[in-house]
């Protein structure tokens, strides 16, 4: 038995927040080891809303998943952290569903039913607040957040752009927009790398839940309106089933997670409609078509995770990962070859070494890759459109895939991909803003 197997529980010994500096510190205990995360919001520009402290409670829980996975103990003990009972469904889902991929990859079945003990129950907030200022729009550097930025700007909603730990790529995307920017610095305990090298467990966590709560706290510190994310309908679709449970790489981007977090914000912090995804009703293909209408971001956009690990924004696409393959596939029906090759720096459809990766996206192999990519059905619709596109129909990858898929989607299935009516919780005035962008085709 190694040292990590002897850790019985993740505990929450306490947190601090310095309102003058805008710095929060969250402490987590695994046995005798206490680790501390720091989130530097910077000074508030207005008197922070009374709900801020309660939002930091929820952030304390969300950020704990980074530390839980070090040892993956069999219990989570919240200790003196008082939460409203109405927030607990989100807390349990955060571990059971948000760490589903981590559990699957490490074969830790018990994580799917992990006990989370609430020792102190907080009273419900005395008042309910619906943020009504300028929206805070999260920017990730890819096509999705760019569509959200453009929709909000076009509607005259004057969004404030937001990012956690923005790198050069995200900064270059935000710089194209005339809108103001807010950023936050999240710093993991510096011993994390050393612990991983010493044999601590590692894997995927629900990072969108963490960044979403950082954004909500930021909004309250600056008198802003709702946090607007750019998560699409396909984020809710799982990658596979394991032990009778859906395992979804994008769980914290999906609609069930969005609803859980909105419920927790209302139950524990008294915040109504403080957080939603503008693009929830749309497919990845629909979003790609909307992005294609805007050429302004062609020289800065990227969705490649390999590129995000670099220090500069010079190489924005690796051209060989699932994200690169899918985004190239999704944009191709709406762009000419010259434009898309300019964006990517290469024509992915001429590289036959990519075929097996594309077979995976088409559902011809095991399961959808553990990446932020669209549904298998969307990939098939894109392929159907490419077989009819003069710039792409004779490309080696397109021809090979068209010969291998059992059947291309029907006209009705193609039309369904662009209806834009998937379940969502977007307020009416924001839906109107999105509609103003028009149809993609």
TrEMBL record:
It comes from Dactylosporangium matsuzakiense. The keyword 4Fe-4S does not apply. Residues 300-412 form the MurL C-terminal domain. Residues 2-278 form the MurL N-terminal domain. The lineage of its organism: Bacteria, Bacillati, Actinomycetota, Actinomycetes, Micromonosporales. GO terms for biological process: cell division; cell wall organization; peptidoglycan biosynthetic process; regulation of cell shape. Its EC number is 5.1.1.23. Signal peptide: none annotated. It is an enzyme of class 5 (isomerase). This is UDP-N-acetyl-alpha-D-muramoyl-L-alanyl-L-glutamate epimerase. One of its GO terms (molecular function) is racemase and epimerase activity, acting on amino acids and derivatives.
């Amino acid at each position: 038995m190694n040292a990590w197997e002897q850790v019985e529980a993740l505990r929450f010994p306490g947190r601090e927040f310095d309102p003058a500096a805008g710095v929060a510190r969250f402490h987590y205990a695994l046995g005798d080891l206490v680790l501390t995360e720091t989130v530097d919001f910077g000074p508030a520009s207005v008197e922070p809303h009374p709900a801020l402290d309660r939002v930091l409670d929820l952030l304390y829980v969300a950020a704990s998943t980074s530390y839980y996975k070090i040892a993956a103990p069999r219990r989570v003990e919240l200790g003196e952290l008082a939460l409203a009972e109405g927030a607990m469904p989100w807390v349990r889902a955060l571990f059971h569903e948000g760490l589903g991929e981590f559990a699957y990859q490490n074969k830790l079945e018990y994580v799917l039913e992990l006990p989370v003990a609430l020792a102190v129950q907080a009273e419900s907030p005395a008042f309910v607040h619906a943020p009504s200022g300028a929206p805070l729009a999260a920017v990730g550097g890819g096509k999705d957040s760019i569509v959200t930025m453009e929709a909000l700007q076009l509607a005259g909603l004057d969004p404030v752009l937001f990012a956690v730990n923005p790198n050069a790529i995200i900064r270059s995307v935000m710089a194209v927009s005339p809108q103001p920017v807010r950023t936050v610095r999240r710093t993991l305990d510096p011993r994390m790398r050393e612990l991983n090298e010493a044999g601590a467990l590692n894997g995927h966590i629900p990072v969108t839940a963490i960044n979403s709560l950082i954004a909500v706290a930021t909004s309250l510190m600056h008198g802003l309106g709702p946090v607007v994310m750019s998560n699409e309908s396909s984020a809710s679709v799982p990658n596979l089933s394991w032990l009778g449970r859906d395992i979804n790489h994008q769980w914290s981007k999906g609609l069930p997670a969005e609803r859980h977090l909105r419920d927790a914000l209302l139950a524990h912090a008294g915040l109504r409609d403080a957080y939603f995804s503008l693009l929830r009703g749309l497919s990845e293909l629909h979003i790609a078509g909307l992005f294609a209408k805007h050429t302004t971001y062609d020289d800065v956009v990227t969705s490649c995770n390999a590129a995000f690990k670099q220090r500069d924004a010079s190489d924005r696409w690796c051209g060989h990962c699932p994200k690169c393959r899918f985004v190239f596939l999704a944009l191709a029906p709406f762009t000419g070859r010259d434009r898309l090759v300019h964006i990517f720096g290469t024509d992915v459809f001429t590289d036959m070494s990519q075929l097996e990766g594309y077979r995976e996206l088409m559902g011809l192999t095991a399961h959808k890759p553990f990446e932020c990519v669209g549904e298998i059905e969307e990939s098939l619709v894109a392929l159907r459109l490419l077989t009819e596109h003069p710039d792409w129909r004779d490309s080696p990858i397109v021809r090979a895939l068209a010969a291998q898929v059992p059947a291309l989607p029907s006209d009705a299935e193609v039309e369904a991909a662009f209806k834009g009516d998937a379940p969502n919780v977007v307020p009416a005035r924001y839906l109107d803003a999105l509609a103003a962008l028009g149809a993609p085709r």
